[in-house]
Amino acid sequence: MVFIPLQTSINSQLRNRVKTPFLSSLISFLVGTVFLLILSIATGSGIPLINGSLSALPWWGYLGGIIGMICLTINIFLFPILGSVQTVIIPMVGQILISVVIDNFGWFYAKTNPLSLTKLLGLILVIVGIMVTIALPSILDKNNQQVTTTDKSKKLVWQIIALLDGFAFSIESTINGHVGTVLQSPIHSAFLTFIIASVILIVINLVQGNFRNIKFIATTHTPWWNFLGGIIGGINIFINAFLVPQIGIGLATILGLLGQIIISLVIDNWGFLGAEINKISKLQTTGILTIILGIVAIELI
């Protein structure tokens, strides 16, 4: 999850060139699929999904790719409706909340970590830290003129969708962790997720007639790094599939979110990938330290 801000920035650049988020997502997933296949062979894990171990998966083991594709699509629609701050904050809070529930009850064969008072305190500190790092600077920014024409009731619906999007992402990570255990390879788990998502997106793009937009890649002189989103996404899924069975979805989620925040601030601070330069403030540094303190409290259980 650490590299998701990089993946999002790169995929957004590709989307601007091919004129549709679904084709951009498909290209990203296809590149990631090829990358994971090469990685699996290069590391001696063999060609994924040909050893018959798929028969040992529960039915919900195949949902990772579907959920991942849905989450990616939802994020595309959230930004213009909720704005940048809520699009980041609400799914993050959703991820944390559902990861605690999954940890507590051991859903999807996840490692069980019962909720305790110390862990609850740590979670509160993490959420406060996220709010201080991301939401508070925007609230205090008098020059922030972000306006939406969406009425309040419709906006509330999308806020709920954003929260559910966060739920779904943590569920996907947990599922992929179990799939990696069953297939005895987190690389194979990530490959299965990417294959399923790619097939779904191929169908969507065929129905919408988006493949004619591939011509824009050549005519707009697309830089090579616009195609790295799939590789970064593959690495993210692989890391999640590896970490979740080891440390639990709760801690994996929180560490991933901390990494996302830090990388996002680094991108903003130096204006990487064409982003507008926004220097890291003392308030944001305080927020990051609060998140780290929360993680320490959680690990004291």
Automatic annotation (TrEMBL):
Q: Which InterPro entries match?
A: YdcZ (IPR006750)
Q: Which residues cross the membrane?
A: 21-47, 59-82, 89-110, 116-136, 156-175, 187-211, 223-243, 249-271, 283-300
The answer, when asked if Transmembrane helix is one of the entry's keywords, is yes
Q: One of this protein's Pfam families, by short name?
A: DMT_YdcZ
Q: Which GO terms describe its cellular component?
A: plasma membrane
Species per Swiss-Prot/TrEMBL record: Companilactobacillus kimchiensis
Q: What's the name of the protein?
A: Integral membrane protein
Key words of the record: Membrane, Transmembrane, Transmembrane helix
